[in-house]
Specification:
heterodimer; A: about 120 residues; mainly beta; 7-stranded mixed beta sheet; 4-stranded antiparallel beta sheet; globular; B: about 120 residues; 6-stranded mixed beta sheet; about 0% helix; about 55% strand
Chain lengths: ~120, ~120
Amino acid sequence: DTGVSQDPRHKITKRGQNVTFRCDPISEHNRLYWYRQTLGQGPEFLTYFQNEAQLEKSRLLSDRFSAERPKGSFSTLEIQRTEQGDSAMYLCASSFPVRGSWVRTDTQYFGPGTRLTVL
Amino acid sequence: AQTVTQSQPEMSVQEAETVTLSCTYDTSENNYYLFWYKQPPSRQMILVIRQEAYKQQNATENRFSVNFQKAAKSFSLKISDSQLGDTAMYFCAFMKQGGANSKLTFGKGITLSVRP
């Protein structure tokens, strides 16, 4: 396993278009997170899945944003009617909270991100 | 709610020297984790070091070590024998332990430049 992957790496779109990003977590990880990072800032939490259940959404995630993880494996993040303010790096991370294991519990491993530019 | 503050936007260090990056945080939680992540230019974020709040001993990973002061809510990162490959943005992050959501709260980051 080579880690968390994200597709596409870059996306340029026109305002008003819909875009969808994909994240493939590390295979044994059951927790998956989406973050958004704007230039010069730290990532901000958007939403979180445990297996296929979406357990929390940030207030940053407006009604134009939707995320799914249908089979508890990969996840998609869709933005409808994109706005210029949506331009950012969208990061995915995964973790596997194993108790009583030497594996580092609750440590999140990040993908390379999808950079979205809305013209 | 938790907050993480990194007040130094940029730092520079000569290759082979030591540099310390500062981080403070605010929380009412007693059990939590603290992390330093590194984000090289145009590359993905990777974990540098992690500290459990219940541990008094400071974490160490090769050239990287932390100074964790729980009472002062301070968590600084020391990089010894700085290398050119250490040039990156460094983020301090907080995670509440336990509960259903282990989301990370990040600081704004600090840009570290290592000079040859």
